[in-house]
Amino acid sequence: MNLPFYIARRYLFSKKSHNAINIISMVSVCGVVVATTALVCALSVYNGFSDLVATLFGNFDPELKITPRQGKVFDPTAEEIRRVRELPAISEFSEVLQDNALVRYKERQSVATIKGVDERYESLTRIDSILIDGEFRLKDEVASYANLGIGLAYSLGINAGFMSPLEIYAPKRDKKVNMANPASSFQLEYAFIGSVFRTDQQIYDDAYMIVPLSTARSLFHYEKEVSAIELKVKKGNDLEAVKAEIRRILGGSFLVQDRFEQQATSFKMMQVEKWMTFLILTFILAIALFNVVGSLSMLMIEKQADVATLRHMGADNRLIRRIFLFEGWMISGFGALIGVVTGVALCLLQQEFGLIQLGTTSGSFIIDAYPVRVIFPDILLVFLTVLAIGFLAAWYPVRYLAKKLRIER
After folding, report:
1. For the segment 6-41, what is each residue's pLDDT rounded down to a tens digit?
2. Taking Cα atoms as reference points, which of 149, 124, 128, 127 lies closest to residue 64?
3. What is the spatial distance between Cα 39 and Cα 235, in angstroms, rounded to a whole number?
4. Distances, alpha carbon 328 to alpha carbons 13, 192, 331, 342, 381, in Å
5. Cα–Cα distance measured from residue 196 to residue 219, given in angstroms and rounded to the nearest whole number
6. Which residues of 336-352 are buried (b: 16+ CB within 10 A; e: fewer)?
7. Mean of the pLDDT values across residues 66-83?
8. Is the pTM of this model over 0.85?
9. Element (H, E) at 38
10. Looking at the DSSP assignment, which residues form a beta bridge with residue 171?
């Protein structure tokens, strides 16, 4: 057995002559346990919220989205687009034309993002799962239908089934504004209210309105152009591999984005918050580990006689330093191990039983309890962080205080 480790282990678990040393050692371990548990739980909760946001966006966003790198629209009949459509890994292919317009219902009006989609859109996303009123439909034999976000519907004071149609105004793209008759410079389209959806994402609920692709093209004066193509990948295919293949086919003229890239700002903000929390808790952990300095200092004072005995037996400065360094490492190591186990156990209990609620009233939020997801890289990072800070906390008294206490000669 490694001699410094064996002696350090005996020092850690044996009874000291001064009870205060035992207390300080236990306080050091408990401080590391609490800080490590907090790190594990905090990172897991952020992972849970990230998964929740991804699920909410996934009800509306496609798995893959193709947009032009420059300009607003492109020709969907181009050769490279045709090759993408024919890829065996693609199960659904939907054309989209999107732009802003003014929506009016009787005396109320609001600026909305008009998203024109074709009949394949419904099978491409989980739009049916977020409907709160009405039935998702685009058109029938006599009329076109609009499907609105709940915030937009509220601002217009409408609901599914209203008999009067919406008025949708957009400037005529290929004409100048006629100051004598401004109304003639706008294209007007009508659409009845088909459904109201709720994504719990403000960007969609407050502004988006889904209409037939033909209505959007007539409104914005386009013949066959689209602003995006949305794709669904067949089950069993690697999404990253399919995305890479599409990028290879399209070259540098198009952007190919998955759901995380489509909402890059939201997910980056969550990652920033996650790692800022990690840094703050790591700072608290560093303060807790300063107890190791006091614990080792007092232990070195108590064990000066033992050190003298070891020197008579042939121990050198390097072996003496390693004994006390191992002592500090074990304090942080045991604390880290217990903290990781405790944190993972709490997260699993929260995941299974929802012990900590988001609010006192059920249904006040999207979910009732804090979401959590434990991932191994985060656990490994926390464990290594605790060990690294613990090493520094142990290194200082061993390196600098040993000479002052005449443990080294």
Report:
1. 666 666 656 554 556 667 777 778 888 999 999 999
2. 124
3. 36
4. 13, 72, 5, 21, 20
5. 21
6. bbbbbebbbebbeebbe
7. 94
8. no
9. helix 19-58
10. 186
